[in-house]
Amino acid sequence: MRRSLFALPLLIALAGCGGGSSDVNSASPYAGTYTGTWVSLTDTSDAGTATWTVGNDGTISGTDVDPGRETTFSIAGRIDANGNVTTTSTPAGGGEAATLNGRLVFEIEGPLAGTLTWNIATPTSYRYAFTRQAN
Questions:
Q1: Does residue 48 contact residue 65 with C-beta atoms inside 8 Å?
Q2: Which residues contact 91 (CB under 8 A, 6 or more apart)?
Q3: Residue 89 belongs to a domain
Q4: Pick from 31, 103, 83: which is nearest to 61 by CA?
Q5: Which residues span the domain enclosing 122?
Q6: Which of 20, 48, 86, 114 could form a disulfide with 104 if both were Cys (CB 3.0 to 4.6 A apart)?
Q7: How many folded domains does the chain comprise?
């Protein structure tokens, strides 16, 4: 009987320790579909539009449209929980892919924005500003 009285509080305490997990499978805070614009920080005529989708796991897929070059770039990559972006940008119809990296954050007014650098022969930085689309 004495063991039973000791074991019961121990079992209750151990049961209270289970189930309190930090949800490592929680959705990315950036999950959703975004439309927006991008513009070169050094040449404002180098500008276009972007449509990106961020999955619950932080994967990015989408397109950047460059009207000046008459080219659509396919974007594929990731965004981490801190907004760090690592993508590959591939021109439609072939051509050399380049990485597009940087950080995006939600600004006070609500857009997801930041500076991303296109790593080409002469790296070029762009200001991206996205609006999350309603589901």
A1: yes
A2: 71, 72, 73, 74, 97
A3: yes
A4: 31
A5: 32-132
A6: 114
A7: 1
Structure tokens belonging to residue 127: 């200001």
DSSP assignment of 64-127: EEETTTTEEEEEEEEE-TT-EEEEEEEETTS---EEEEEEEEE-TTS-EEEEEEEESSS-EEEE
**For residue 78, what are its two tokens?**
């990731």
What is d(CA 104, CA 107) in angstroms, rounded to the nearest whole number? 9
Structure tokens, 3: 């063991």
pLDDT in tens, 26-80: 889 999 999 999 999 999 999 999 999 999 999 999 999 999 999 999 999 999 9
Question: Is the residue at 64 inside a domain?
Answer: yes
CA dihedral over 114, 126, 66, 72, signed as positive or negative: negative
User: Does pLDDT of 98 surpass 60?
Assistant: yes
Interval 101-119 mean pLDDT:
88
Number of C-alpha atoms within 13 angstroms, CB side, residue 37?
9
